[in-house]
Amino acid sequence: MATSPKLFLCPKCRHRYLGHDPLPDCPACGYDYREKEGFRWDVLVYLLAIMGLLSFLLVTSYYRGNIGLSSRGMAQPQSNGEEKLPGSGTARAVPLQRPPGTPGQ
User: Fold this and answer.
1) I want to staple 33 with a disulfide (CB 3.0 to 4.6 A). Which of 16, 23, 64, 88 is the partner?
2) Looking at the domain assignment, is residue 30 inside a domain?
3) Within this chain, do residues 20 and 45 fall inside the same structural domain, yes or no?
4) Are the C-beta atoms of 21 and 3 separated by less than 8 Å?
5) Whole-prediction pTM value?
6) pLDDT of 47-101, one tens digit each?
7) Where in the sequence is the domain holding 33, given as residue range(s)?
8) Among candidates 39, 38, 27, 42, which has minimal Cα distance to 12?
9) Domain co-membership, 47 together with 69
10) Which residues of 69-92 are buried (b: 16+ CB within 10 A; e: fewer)?
């Protein structure tokens, strides 16, 4: 069964005309309704803007967290005034031992 024609309005010249569902070209100005194929640069720009914003927020939150930790650590003075170095704890030093049967014993 054939469908009845629809009334279309051309977005370019505002001419009204009758046509069927696959949109025909405008008879007055020849406007083509088909979508243009090609690369969508606007989508690329939107994605780059979103990624830039997210990376900026991640970097600022990282530095904000590190500044908070370092300022708290610097504000507390050492209890006995000595510098704490790795390996300078209360652990007892163990002399080196050679395995049995090696020369030099």
Assistant:
1) 23
2) yes
3) no
4) yes
5) 0.34
6) 999 999 999 999 988 887 776 555 555 555 555 666 777 776 665 556 667 777 7
7) 1-37
8) 27
9) yes
10) eeeeeeeeeeeeeeeeeeeeeeee
